[in-house]
Amino acid sequence: MSDVEEAVTRAHHGEWARVVAALTRRFGDLDIAEEAAAEAFATAVERWPADGVPPNPGAWLTTTATRKAIDRIRRENKRDDKQKEARMLDDALPEPLGAIDDDRLRLIFTCCHPALAMETRVALTLRMVGGLTMPEIARAFLVAESTMGQRITRAKAKIKAARIPYRVPSAADLPARVSGVLAVLFLVFNEGYLATGPGTDPVRHDLTAEAIRLTRLIRALLPDDGEVTGLLALMLLVEARRSARVSAGGELVALDEQDRGAWDAELIAEGHRLVRERLAAAAAGVAPGRYQILAAINAVHTSARDIRDTDWAQIRALYDQLVRVDPSPMSALNRAIAVAELDGPEVALAAVDRLEDKLAGYHAYHATRADLLRRLGRSGQARAAYDKAIDLAGNTAETASLTRRRDRLR
């Protein structure tokens, strides 16, 4: 990849949401914002090799995208009232839109409006804020690209028809709206943490960084919301391990094999501080939610200097608490990993096998089974489980890791 191609890729990762958000604020139309942003990046691919990368790529892209949007509006309004067109093209004065003036935060609240179905909110946010392509989003949802395209098109049309406002909700409305936004941000973070597309980087730092940035802004709006704090702590403790998660050879590195000296000590310290803050609230009688418990689990992991120092009993106790709060099959699957460390792989395998009906299409289920079968010496069954996990995994680094573990079986 040439230096210019790398510059375009970096700009896309770093500036896509900023450009789309700026255009959405100005023109009030997600379709116009997305298409103009895409045209601006296409123009960059054509122009930058000849003209050079501009000193401020984000400003260049925003200016170019704005011109593209104005051109489109002029074409579509040829027969309309010229005064109306002129008002639309003028720079609108920003309205007072909340305590924090951030276009991307307003964009995510627009994409996560409760009028939209949850999976539609996630898909629209991945597209408009994360800049994922339609094939990447379709793979994440295990649906056809055309189906996902239709969902996103309908969502944008609904936002336009219902005149869903482009703003951070008022203080009175925030608590009711924030849980849906947190769910979407967590999924955006997860897409960055372990990208689903086989043609993308296995770890998308641009997505994890943006999810963390937006969660910090929401915490500034709701400093006393335990789940906002919990989600931020969880993201920080997971992000702290990023540099140790993929080997030089491109393989995903499991937690027990990671170089803990490469973990980000500052992020871990901040995450632990936030977890302690929520533990104090729990001691005062405030029951923790899902994100707070997950953050506490990750705090235990990141407190151990060596995998052998991990307090598995505490982790299982936390998973017991999580299963009561969030009785999902994924919570039960992750709990089984702690059970294996305390009660042995055979007990854990029995627990995992009970989840087959709900998780048979999920690669992590088969990868967990494969590891437990390997530990029990059942190599043939382990190999078959690894094969199934490899077939279902989309992340290139994870596929490489699963393949190596399978091939090491005797």
TrEMBL record:
GO terms for molecular function: DNA binding; sigma factor activity. It comes from Amycolatopsis mongoliensis. Residues 18-78 form the RNA polymerase sigma-70 region domain. Coiled coil: none annotated. Keywords: Sigma factor, Transcription, Transcription regulation. Residues 108-159 form the RNA polymerase sigma factor 70 region 4 type domain. Belongs to the sigma-70 factor family. ECF subfamily. InterPro entries: DUF6596 (IPR046531), RNA_pol_sigma70_r2 (IPR007627), RNA_pol_sigma70_r4_t2 (IPR013249), RNA_pol_sigma_r2 (IPR013325), RNA_pol_sigma_r3/r4-like (IPR013324), TPR-like_helical_dom_sf (IPR011990), WH-like_DNA-bd_sf (IPR036388). GO terms for biological process: DNA-templated transcription initiation. Residues 177-277 form the DUF6596 domain. It holds the Pfam family DUF6596. SUPFAM superfamilies: Sigma2 domain of RNA polymerase sigma factors, Sigma3 and sigma4 domains of RNA polymerase sigma factors, TPR-like. This is Sigma factor.
